From TrEMBL:
Name this polypeptide is given: Very-long-chain (3R)-3-hydroxyacyl-CoA dehydratase
Gene3D superfamilies in the cross-refs: 2.60.40.790
Any one GO MF annotation of this record: very-long-chain (3R)-3-hydroxyacyl-CoA dehydratase activity
Organism: Grus japonensis (Japanese crane)
Similarity remark: Belongs to the very long-chain fatty acids dehydratase HACD family.
Assigned keywords, A-Z: Coiled coil, Endoplasmic reticulum, Fatty acid biosynthesis, Fatty acid metabolism, Lipid biosynthesis, Lipid metabolism, Lyase, Membrane, Transmembrane, Transmembrane helix
Catalytic activity: (3R)-hydroxyhexadecanoyl-CoA = (2E)-hexadecenoyl-CoA + H2O; a very-long-chain (3R)-3-hydroxyacyl-CoA = a very-long-chain (2E)-enoyl-CoA + H2O
Amino acid sequence: MAGPSLRPHVHWAQRHRELYLRVELSDVQNPDIAITDNVLHFRAQGHGAKGDNIYEFQIEFLEPVEPKPVCRVTQRQLNITVQKKESNWWERLTKQEKRPLFLAPDFDRWLDESDAEMELKEKEEEKINKMKIESRVPKDPFKHLKKGYLIMYNLVQFLGFSWIFVNMTVRLFILGKDSFYDTFHTIADMMYFCQTLAAMEIMNSLIGLVRSPLIPAVVQIFGRNFILFVVLGSLEEMQSKPVVFFIFYFWSIIELFRYPYYMLSCIGIEWKPLTWLRYTAWIPLYPLGGLAEAVCIVQSIPIFSETGKFSLGLPNPLNVTIQFSFLLQIYLIALFLGVFVNFRHLYKQRKHHLGPKKRKMK
């Protein structure tokens, strides 16, 4: 049979609008806190003065309070904040004149009435000053137009890459490996559209429509468009290579999470599973996409060497030809540097959005 429940030590303080209760319990489990008929009911499992046990207490407040207390649990204690229904100063906490033995003032937060009034006045002055500063900041007359443009841009890109991903996936299930060889002829038009439109991301960053850094955007968009338009678009021999399938597939999967995340951010919505995918899916996909692009470059070098396409012949007396295939070898090094730049940028973003934060329990 369980032993009788015990009362924990409770310390209290007040302001004109709030009451603060600090319950001296550590390792609190299953706290049950409610206010009914102006009485606070508390019950919880925790470690207090009498060891690990069930502790409970009731407090009938001197004056009416709001029935929704806010609770914050830490490892060492439990803090309860209660809102007063009227802003005034109480002469005591409880309706009964005699103070309960388990209740004591919280001298860490205690203020007398004059000090509390001064604190309240300072907060109100700070709020007024903040409103004055905000009123001086000129409002952007094009704010809603910019937001609408960004929502539409991200929506169009999401739909475009979704079409690519779904089309390639369906063809893969139906045709199997045969779908690898005609990916370019089936998907290229939509990929041309999406990657051409993606150049707007550089403009968005330049004119301050978005806070994204410019260099990672330039690296990614230039790298993709170089592969798409220069390497694949100009060489028919490359268009039937299986590597095209993997390049397009990795690109589209990444964008399936990126564009909806940005679209929802424009309207102030954060969906945690999508945020996690946005800042986690790139970890395997970016290296795989970079590897597929590198394979594409390596496979194209012999073709460019044989055809001499895009090679630059210098006039006499130098009579020297700069082979485009040689430039591709240099670009291959730059490709891995670009992957590193984007990887580092995305790692910082992931740490910012998904890093450890102080947890609050209510």
